[in-house]
Specification:
alpha/beta, 15 helices, single chain, 13% strand
Length: 378
């Protein structure tokens, strides 16, 4: 079969986890993108650039200088930076891209850059929590002078208008309600960029946001975006990036035929075993009373196809629903676990994993975050 070599490299955990989605006819709404079609707002491409030690610093120095309209000095760039929870019952965070700016060896500014493609989070409160976790790393035991804490910019880039005012950027700072003109220098800024916004900002910012939304060379219209485009093209053509990228649609094309072939037998066997175990002694006794003595003896020796059909007809709706619910819940959790392992293996974020689980398993959307926390390997 064409693509068999690629298929053999597909992890069995992903193949198993995909069975449920295929059986439900799911995942057909996913848009396939080649690596060359990815845009900067896509998580894979932004992480690939942030992970490239040759270009990540000049790339993000240029990006920040345009978006924030200020000179950016020496920086260090880290992709998928994790700050663990302080205790097991609390939540840690994973920053998509963290840029640390230095001056004379001291950290002066920290930039957390977070692209978001779906409006599934309460971003202001989400960012408030991220800010607290990030700041906590710079407060040492016994600290007396807090003026040395670096400035923090929590930068969110979205392809939807979070505030509905059609601005390309919304800069949020703490202020005094009673005296608005009072300068309140806590060093904290939240900056929300809307890639399709028309108000505020500058032409340079608009050009940059347009390129982030659609990273095609035709949108490289000024010196900054042309330089950005050269970085993007270089990363997209790196062999290690090409080898590490395959869209969900590509996975489907490679494995779906094989999965459809073996899914029926495997699922049927699993369901039959689970249903057999779920039929209680009480229900079997009720069934026995409903059929003849001869059939009862045959059931005792072996459950024939004919008897199983009669048993199915006599099992009450309540028992059938209970069995179905028990089997479906367990099988679904196994499938969701496999998806979570796949998302993590191919460098997705936990937040994106939750969103994708909700799309694939809408009936279990309220369990997506809990199961992601349960099976995500930190």
């Amino acid at each position: 079969m064409e693509g068999r070599d690629e298929e053999n490299s597909v992890p069995e955990s992903f193949r198993a986890g995909y069975r449920h989605a295929l059986s439900e006819g799911g995942c057909m709404g996913y848009t396939k993108k080649t690596l060359q079609e990815l845009d900067l707002i896509d998580n894979f491409l932004s992480n690939a650039i942030a992970s490239n030690k040759e270009i990540n610093e000049p790339f993000y120095r240029l990006l920040l200088s345009v978006l924030l309209g200020k000179e950016i000095k020496t920086v260090r760039v880290l992709a998928q930076q994790i700050i663990p929870a302080s205790t097991p019952e609390l939540r840690g965070i994973r920053m998509d891209v963290e840029i640390t700016e230095y001056e004379e060896g001291n950290v002066t500014n920290v930039y957390d850059v977070e692209p978001h493609l779906k409006d599934t989070l309460h971003l202001p409160r989400h960012n408030r929590y991220y800010q607290a976790k990030i700041d906590g790393r710079y407060v040492r035991r016994g600290l007396k002078d807090f003026s040395g804490i670096p400035n923090l910019y929590v930068i969110t880039i979205t392809n939807y208008d979070l505030f509905g005012k059609d601005y390309m950027m919304y800069t949020v700072r703490n202020s005094c309600v009673e005296v608005p003109e009072l300068e309140y220098d806590d060093g904290l800024q939240f900056v929300y960029f809307y890639t399709k916004g028309k108000k505020g900002g500058s032409q340079a910012i608009k050009n940059m946001l347009t390129y982030i939304q659609n990273s095609d060379s035709k949108n490289a219209v000024d010196e900054a975006t042309r330089k950005m485009d050269s970085y993007v093209m270089k990363v997209k053509n790196l062999p290690e990036v090409e080898a590490g990228y395959m869209t969900l649609g590509d996975w489907i094309d490679i494995i779906s035929e094989d999965i459809r072939e073996d899914m029926r037998d495997e699922v049927t066997k699993e369901v039959r075993e689970e249903v057999t175990e779920a039929i209680t002694k009480e229900v079997r006794e009720e069934v026995t009373e409903a059929i003849t003595k001869e059939v009862r003896e045959e059931v005792t020796e072996t459950i024939t196809k004919e008897v199983r059909e009669e048993v199915t007809e006599t099992i009450t709706k309540e028992v059938r629903e209970e069995v179905t619910e028990a089997v479906t819940k367990e099988v679904t959790e196994k499938n969701m676990k496999a998806f979570i392992e796949m998302f993590q293996k191919y460098h997705d974020t936990k937040e994106n994993a939750v969103d994708k689980l909700r799309d694939i398993f809408p009936e279990y959307a309220d369990q997506a975050e809990e199961l992601t926390e349960k099976y995500w390997q930190n």
